Amino acid sequence: MVTLKIDGRELQVEADSTVLEAALQAGVKIPTLCNLKDINKIGACRMCLVEDARSGKLQASCALPVSEGLEIITNSAKVLNARRAVLELILSDHDRSCLTCKRNQTCELQALADELGVTEIPFEGEFIPRTIDEASPSVVRDNNKCILCRRCVAACSKIQCINAIGMQNRGFRTEVGTPFATSLGETDCINCGQCITACPTGALTEKDATAEVWAALADPNKFVIIQPAPAVRVAIGEEFGMPIGTSSTGKLAAALRRLGADRVFDVDFGADLTIMEEGTELLDRIQNGGVLPMITSCSPGWVKYCEHFQKDFIPNLSSCKSPNQMQGAITKTYFAQQQGLDPKNIFVVSVMPCTAKKFEISRPEMGRDSYRDVDANLTTRELARMLRQASIDYMNLPDEAFDDVLGDSTGAAVIFGVTGGVMEAALRTVADILEGKDLQQIEYTAVRGIDNIKEATVTIAGTEIRVAVAHGTGNAGKLLDRVRKGECSYHFIEVMGCPGGCVTGGGQPLVNARTRYEIDPKLARAKAAYACDEALPLRKSHQNPSIQKLYAEFLGKPGSHKAHELLHTSYVER
Ligand code: SF4
Ligand code: SF4
Ligand code: SF4
Q1: How far is the CA of 148 from the centre of ligand 3 (A)?
Q2: Residue 441 C-alpha to ligand 2 middle, in angstroms?
Q3: Which label site among 79, 125, 401, 421 has the fewest CB atoms less than 10 Å from its CB?
Q4: Amino acid 127: pLDDT
């Protein structure tokens, strides 16, 4: 520990802290832009300048280590004037179209301009107009709103280990670019959207699908079904003022109905269905000498990463489609038949915590000759925008249920949104099948939590099943390297493309840098998902009566020919 003074107050902090971290601990707020907890600590933007009381020097507090006897002033006139000048310079080279910007009111740059009292820009200079890159199916890049903080680059290269974007050119011409200045859609980008959630401004946003959903809702010939993913219910409330980690399942169902959906289904049903198919596939591979370890395939960011960077593991991927695609496929066959609807007239909208889903729905494997399994994908943020546009008062909505039968689900499904959740849900069902009874011990805590890689050995009916869980493609790559080298071996691996799993996917409500020092959204939202699981009467996918009915009336049994035709897929080397 070292002792230092911040604004005249003495405090003790750990010796490896920065002054910024020490100030946060003391409850002193210092503005930042490039700093992002656990992701980016480069001292580039100079917003966090503080004054060394003894030398009078200004220093970037995010890059200044604490030391014994250090005395720091965070709010002298010199500090405030310097910070304001830095911000004015950043804004002088910025497309300041706040009113029409998607980040209006969630922009960290805009909030700082307000906080520091910037009311005019004294610097007039050259402005280089940049081309907006809209070719990616998931991410729109607008460098006119980029402040060169490099948070996106750190998320993409350090956390996800993709390197689809990086800094290019020098001096005034510096910008975030792609290899060979191609559009992002032509790179190895996996569409995870982690760059978007890292970005403090409107320079990175999701590809907007709200217009096509509004058009479908207004079309009298379309039967519109909206289906949210498990992770959406534990985060969307934040868009309307709920604390991070609040679930609002009932309000979500009510909101989708108010928006005008003809049916409100739940991708949790698709998650239960995935467990039936994936659990069967796992048992088949273990018992009949199939390719092991089997690796989950629910996360389209992870799947694309595997297709680009881990091609030798493609045969290990489960052949199961993701829950969202399974749900769409069943909606346009089983549900369409039941209701006498032409699948071509059904318009399925999924609400996802994920930007990679926008790519997944367009994969040629995800549909049939004349229609797609899922027609449009909204992120949680886009749905919130639509609800605001429709003046739906989310906070005062009553709790409602999803519609029968593709709205029925179990607790196993809701934890799909959390890293380790798919593994736990699968183990609950596989254990019951192998043991031949309704086991009461169903919480597999070894696969819970946010350790980068989790491992466990589970003994079921005398058989040892070795499992591992990785979240974020950077961690997945490290785990697969170890498997490849023979340093470890597993029967089953769960990989989620985003750190934390879907609860902190690239389409979820944004959490600003300051809040991330106080609350870890990965943990808070996961806690809410586990609470939803505990509160449900049924917590195992195979006990979902609507899933049982689907197999009895339509699919036959898990892994049947029909199930394979509708619910399974294939992959390509990229
Ligand atoms: S990025 Fe922020 S400051 Fe820039 S136009 Fe958008 S809201 Fe305004
Ligand atoms: S979407 Fe993911 S892979 Fe693509 S640039 Fe952003 S962080 Fe990198
Ligand atoms: S795109 Fe966003 S995160 Fe990336 S450098 Fe620009 S402002 Fe920062």
Answers
A1: 5
A2: 39
A3: 125
A4: 87
